[in-house]
Design goal:
With 88 residues, the protein is mostly helical. The protein has 5 helices and no strands. The chain has one domain. The radius of gyration is 15 Å and the shape is globular.
Length: 88
């Protein structure tokens, strides 16, 4: 799940996660740039793409982000139950 969030092309999952942990806008923007540099053949996102992502980030409340992350955790937990039974 973490890998999906970090390497998602549009970075909206990362925006939600960062908002949930209280990361400020400037730190989020710096994180996105660092992650993009770590991707093979990734260029700096176009200014309009970054502006759109920051607009998305600004539009997500911390409460909504926390609810979304909690939902993701439940989904991951549900996926792990069959795997745990198979190992027993």
């Amino acid at each position: 799940m973490a890998r999906q969030i970090v390497f998602q092309r549009n970075n909206q999952g990362l925006a939600i996660t960062c908002r949930a942990i209280g990361l400020d806008r400037a730190a989020f923007q710096a994180l996105v740039r660092m992650i993009r540099k770590a991707r093979p053949k990734a260029a700096e996102p176009p200014a309009e793409a970054m502006a759109s992502l920051l607009e998305f980030y600004d539009g997500v409340s911390q409460e909504a982000a926390n609810l979304t992350v909690a939902k993701w955790r439940r989904q991951v937990s549900l996926m792990e139950v069959p795997a745990a039974r198979a190992q027993a």
